[in-house]
Structure prediction request, 346 residues.
Amino acid sequence: MHVEFYIVAWDDTTRGFFAAMERAVQRGVTVRLLADYIATRKIANSDQTMAELDRIGVNWSYMLPVQPFKGNYQRPDLRNHRKLVVVDGTAAFVGSQNLISRDYNSPKNIERGLMWQELVAELQGPVVAAINVVFLSDWLIETGEDLSAIEHIRVTEIDQSAGDATCQLVPSGPAYESENNLRLFLSLISNATERVILTSPYFVPDEAMVYAITSACQRGLDVQLFVSEVGDQALVYHAQRSYYETLLQAGVRIFLYPAPFILHSKHFSVDSDIAVIGSSNMDIRSFSLNAEISLMVRSPAFVAAMREVEQDYRNAGRELTLDEWRAEPARSTFLDGLAGLTSALN
Prediction:
């Protein structure tokens, strides 16, 4: 069992998952776990979380540790933001969810009543092997342990009668020569012929992404964006808002997911047969600084299921109009513009 999350916490929400790992260890299953160092250490009681992993017998390691007094130092802005689970090499999970309570155990979030809304895909078939390779690569980087000789990479077949899906896994991050996730997103949006529906909790695109989205509108496509009505990070929230007028003027329909929820899901769909889901936000940090994992799926059935999720977002939230946006107080839009100018630093 391979577990990799940006944030790992042992709390009332995750105790069942930790208990499942403990039972697996007791059955003789090897359980390996990776957690991003800075993101996990920022959570309250992180020492107790790691002590619990030790107690139940999980083999674990931090990713990208910043421990200069232990000889482990690197740029603290480079983080591993991936979220994945692989079980027996036959089933896998990827998406937006971290291993933590919906309020992230933050007193500030609890006071505001904030809760994170996620989306995760369960996968079977040959793509599971690709996801496992991403974990094994990260494990090798962090521990120096090469598991390729002992970890059999199973490439399992699927029942084609159940309806097949073509999947392409796209890992990305600063270790790659190019921004793989950004190139994937731009290519799909630029080649869309009917519609593009985007969901991103932190939408701070670069210039190329803005041009791709607005150009899709100019080609007559139905382009929609789902974002949260409220934000948990002030600078990023205001930077995101700085793009609203440009997008609305171009014809993008923006839907606001209601408070107290933070729409943390990270996915988009193109036309009627292509979708992408994973850990990547649509911002400069995810494109350039974070290690991410994105799954492209070509399947009308998968996209139809995602359409149902998108409709749930519409039903729960409301559409932001250009007239409403232009009525925003000047003080708010000034903060938006200021945050937008510094978005590369957020």
